[in-house]
């Protein structure tokens, strides 16, 4: 399994990026969480088999032109501050 912490910089809330990411992650069978940040960016953690995580990251990198995606592998943790929601593999 691979777990990646992702921050998508740029104002992406207005284009439904968070919801779109959730749909893609669920479709690919990834789990994790995603939330909006006050500055308009999006933070997420995606977990799953490496090919699944790579497909979700590829989608994120092709997102809105203003978005800048930074991803790094991390140990398990939960969101703090604003509440997030879980995306679970089915």
Report on this model:
- With 90 residues, this protein is an alpha+beta fold.
- It has a single domain (2-77), classed as Alpha-Beta Plaits, CATH 3.30.70.
- 27% of the residues lie in helices and 33% in strands.
- The chain has helices at residues 17-28, 50-61; strands at residues 2-9, 31-36, 42-48, 68-73, 85-87.
- A five-stranded antiparallel beta sheet has the order 4-1-3-2-5, covered by helices on one side.
- Helix 1 packs antiparallel against helix 2.
Indicate the CATH architecture: 2-Layer Sandwich
Q: Name the poorly predicted regions.
A: 79-85
What's the structural domain tally?
A: 1
Name of the CATH class? Alpha Beta
Number of strands: 5
Can you describe this structure in just a few lines?
The chain is an alpha+beta fold and about 90 residues long. It contains two helices and five strands.
Protein topology:
Blueprint: E1 2-9, H1 17-28, E2 31-36, E3 42-48, H2 50-61, E4 68-73, E5 85-87
Antiparallel strand pairs: 1-3, 1-4, 2-3, 2-5
Helix pairs in contact: 1-2
Structural key phrases:
90 residues; alpha+beta; Alpha-Beta Plaits; five-stranded antiparallel beta sheet; 5 strands; globular
